[in-house]
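Reminder: ligand-aware prediction takes two inputs, not one.
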Amino acid sequence: MTASRQSGHPPPDRVRVLVVGAGPAGMVAGITLAGYGIDVLLVEKRTRASALSRAMLISTRTMELMRRWGLEAAVRAEASDVEAYTYVTESLTAGTGSDLPMAIPTRPEAAVVSPTRPAWAPQDSIEPILFAHLRTLPTAEVRLGCELTGLRQDDDGVQATLLDSRTGTAHVIEARYVIGADGPYSTVREQLGIAMEGLDHLGHYESVQFRAPLDAVVGDRKPAIYMITRPDAAGFLSRRGHGDRWVFARGRAPDQAGLADLGEAELAGLLARAAGVDELRPRVDRLSTFALAAMLAERYREGRGFLIGDAAHRMTPRGGTGMNTAVQDAFDLGWKLAWVLQKWAPADLLDSYQTERRPIGKHNVDFSAAPPTVPATAAETLPWDLNGRLAHHWLPAPGGAPAPADPVSTIDLVGDGLTVLAGREGRRWTSTRAIATAPIPLAVRLLDQGTAAALGLRPGGAVLVRPDCQEIRRWSHYDEADPPRADHLAPAPRPLPAD
Ligand SMILES: Cc1cc2nc3c(=O)[nH]c(=O)nc-3n(C[C@H](O)[C@H](O)[C@H](O)COP(=O)(O)OP(=O)(O)OC[C@H]3O[C@@H](n4cnc5c(N)ncnc54)[C@H](O)[C@@H]3O)c2cc1C
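Here is what comes back for the chain with flavin-adenine dinucleotide:
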């Protein structure tokens, strides 16, 4: 990881948005804001990328965002070729076992609802993809080795104290807004005086990243996770992307020796037993321990400061929602802040960040804390990931032409401003007076009859959607006196998915 527009100079004195932390949440906030041309400074206390795999599951909706930024193929290239199920077995080579469905859509299930599908790719290979993309955006600047140590705010903005870890010098910077994307032990959260509520100290989860030629022993099965049941090696084995990279993880009981307490030979023996290969000689890359918690910030905002990602919610790895919730928080806040800073929308749009994202954070925190015996299906978890966004339908190739290599979905039609999707009979929408009260860019997309009908549009009707594909309004026919308006940007009322 190197910094974009990084220089030996101190950070600028003033910036519109300061993002603290360059994990997945901070980078997606930066990408979204800079995508709108907003100047944004990301400060990150680490001086280099994290080599920790951590998240492996990139959810359906997160993959749709990757697709939006043109990163879908790059992420897919880092993903393991696995299917969404757990294989329960004594060891990798035991030869018998049973399949356990995961609360993640399978390929056929995802194909019905989305132009993409989840990917099983390690976080340490996703972060460089996000970082490289961020570097291409001219209004984004990243400072590595730069730690936020203090924060004050008044009606006009925030003043942040930044410490340069290389020189030891402190620097104060002013920003219109600050985003705390600084992880579970967030300094921004502490400085904003926001408490966490929920369950702390739920135990420890530990993992060892290693390399071993296990492809030859696993055969044709492609589960995302192997649940190893033999008592002397109980835990979970999964691939870390491609080749011979694997991770073994387990919850650690209070009276159990940690992986880090084991000698080299003992650790190799544990991995050999889990694999069921006596002569296995694993090459250990890294050990890590993770304190389990299921906690939610009591609020996501204080004045000009916002919390996103793990700074706003701590989840256990169950369900694989931590990073995905982080990415989607960041996109939600990013486009809303950009709209307000562009003067496309009133500042109270920012209140909707907490209203819309905190219930999802709460659901995912609670789900992560449920005992593993509580089953869940993709049908239950998917509505929380997709969050009721516009339905996906592939557009037909024009005029009966052969199917294009890169087919276009209704989801792909949604732009950075407001988008009207209308049937071809609704051509008058293309001359709509557009936005009544603010200069929000409005794109009008005319659909073929089949796609319009699939979206539930009557001939001449239309639907208005936000950048996050949330539907705001529907019309059954064109009405010159009732154009799209910018004073009502909340999604159309609909019940939250059932708990
Ligand atoms: C074992 C494990 C498995 C997981 N599996 C999954 C999964 O399958 N799917 C999933 O979605 N999630 C998973 N997660 C969770 C996921 O890793 C986190 O939710 C995700 O990293 C959160 O991203 P973030 O950007 O909010 O925070 P982080 O990734 O923690 O990034 C925060 C950044 O802020 C920086 N920082 C902190 N303080 C300061 C400061 N004062 N100044 C400047 N910088 C600062 C840190 O150095 C860090 O780089 C897993 C986690 C673990 C531990």
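The first strand starts at residue 14 and ends at 20. Confidence is low (pLDDT under 50) at residues 1-5. We will return to this case in the review session.
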